[in-house]
Amino acid sequence: MSDRLAFGIAADLLAQGAVIERLSLLLSLAGVVYAVLGAWPIGLAVLALGLAQGWIALRVGFDARLFARLAQAPDLDAFDAAMTSQGLMPAAKAGRPAALRIAGARRLMAMQVALLGTQVVVLAVGVVG
Q: How far apart are CA 37 and CA 40, in angstroms?
């Protein structure tokens, strides 16, 4: 598979992180309601998980946009130079192949999904318990 195609597919996958982010926001709002109604440990836990998910969602969304750009013009040397000069990537990560970059972004998205799942479990425990 060409790097252009791989980056394009990865960008499309990572763009779905926005759906996860919206679901997490709804659960975070439910956490606020729980906290206001007196179940503050559950509410704060759900909210804290939502904040962590939001940070990961920012990174996943940024990667989606970067990969979309690389799908159009996959000049990794110029990309690495621009990212390191702006302090957005450590120089030690420059020169990595497309597959490793995509794998790293997929791990971020998996963390995002795991945080959403944990929010669901904590909220479910609050409802049942």
A: 8
pLDDT for residue 126:
85
Name the band, by pLDDT with cuts 50, 70 and 90, for residue 33: very high
Instruction: Indicate whether this model's pTM tops 0.85.
Output: yes
Q: In the 3-class helix/strand/coil scheme, how is 40-98 assigned residue by residue? A: HHHHHHHHHHHHHHHHHHHHHHHHHHHHHHHHHCCCHHHHHHHHHHCCCCCHHHCCCCH
> Which H or E run contains 16?
none
Q: Are 56 and 40 in contact (CB under 8 A)?
A: no
